[in-house]
Amino acid sequence: MRVTVHLFARLRDLAGRQSFTCDVPAGATVADAWHAVVSCHASLEPFGRSISCAVNDDFARMTVTLDDGDEVAFLPPVSGGSGSCP
Amino acid sequence: MRLPRTAITAEPISAERLAADLEADVRTLGEGCGALCTFVGVVRATHAGRAVRYLEYEAHEPLAARALARIAAEVEAEWPAGRVAIHHRIGRLEIGEASVVIVAAAAHRAEAFGVCRYAIERVKQIVPVWKHEFFTDGDDWVDGSVADPDDPAARARARSLACA
C-alpha cells in the first residue's frame, strides 16, 4: 500500500524534500514508514528517538497501524526555548 | 469582531487587542475580570553569543492550532475562573517582533499569573512549531522537547512552574 510522508523543519532540510509517497507492506506501522524513509535518507536516522508523529493530522504513536492513503507526518522536537529556570 | 482565542498566524500579533477581547469575555464570568497578565515572546538579537539576523517559524498548522485549543481547555479545567488567549506567529520575524502572545485573565492576580506561566510552558512543550535562526554566520534549527500532549509528567511540570 502507499502512504504520503510529510517531513517538517530540520528533517525536511536534511532530506531535501517535504512530501512524498512511500510504499509500505499491508499492516505496516508508523515505525515501519519511518524506517522506509530512513532507508532513503540515512541522515535522518539519529532522529528516530526524538521525533513525534502524526497520522492524518492527529498525533499518533509509532506503533499505530497505517491504512492505504494515510498521511504520515514526522516532527522533530518542538522549538523549546530556555524556559525552565528554578 | 473579536479575535479568536487561539491562533497560528502569519500576521503581526496585537497584544493589546487580544487583552481587550479577553477582558470583555471574562467580565461576565464568575467574579468578573480583575487581572490581565500578558506574556510577549519577542525575537532576540543574539543566541548563544551569535548575532541573529532574523527568524523563521514553521508549524504543522492543524496540529499546532489544535494544541493551542487544548492548552486553553486545560486552563479552564485547572482554573475554572481563568481564561487564556494564545496567538503564535509563523513565517519570517525580525528582531523585536512578537513571536507568541499569551493573555491570561482571571478575577485575581495570582490566578492570572499562574495561567499565563502555565500556558507558555505548555506552548513550549506540545505545540509543533519550529524556530529556524538565521545568524550573520550561518543558520540553525532550534530543538527542544518532544511534543507529546498526553504526557502527564510534562503537564504536571508546567503546573508546578505556574504555582511556584
3D architecture notes:
- The complex is a heterodimer of chains A (about 90) and B (about 160).
- Chain A has about 90 residues and is an alpha+beta fold.
- Chain A is built from two helices and five strands.
- Chain A has helices at about 10-15, 30-40, and strands at about 1-5, 20-25, 50-55, 60, 70-75.
- Chain A starts with a strand and ends in an 11-residue tail after the last strand.
- Chain B is globular, with a radius of gyration of 16 Å.
- Chain B has four helices and nine strands, in the order βαβββαβββαββα.
- In chain B, a hairpin with a 2-residue loop joins strand 3 (about 45) and strand 4.
- The longest helix of chain B is centred in the middle third of the chain and has 18 residues, at about 60-80.
- Chain B starts with 5 loop residues before the first strand and ends with a helix.
- The interface of A and B includes residues 9 and 57 of A.
Question: Top keywords for this entry?
Answer:
heterodimer; A: 86 residues; alpha+beta; five-stranded mixed sheet; 2 helices; 27% strand; B: 164 residues; five-stranded antiparallel sheet; four-stranded mixed sheet; 4 helices; 9 strands; 36% helix
* Oligomeric form: heterodimer
Helix fraction of chain A, binned, reads: 10-25%
List the total number of helices of chain B.
4
Tally of DSSP β-strands of chain B: 9
Amino- and carboxy-terminal Cα gap of chain B: 36 Å
Mean of residue pLDDT of chain A? 90
Task: Write down the overall mean pLDDT of chain B.
Answer: 94
Low-confidence stretches of chain A: none
Percent range for helical residues of chain B? Answer: 25-40%
- Low-pLDDT regions of chain B: none
Which structural class do the helices and strands of chain B define? alpha+beta
Q: How would you sum up the global shape of chain B? A: globular
Taken from the alpha-carbon principal axes, the silhouette of chain A is globular
Beta-strand percentage range of chain A: 25-35%
- Using only C-alpha atoms, the radius of gyration of chain A works out to 13 Å
Helices and strands of chain A: which structural class?
alpha+beta
Number of strands of chain A: 5
What does the main sheet of chain A amount to?
5 strands, mixed
The largest beta-sheet of chain A arranges its strands as 2-1-5-3-4
Rg of chain B is: 16 Å
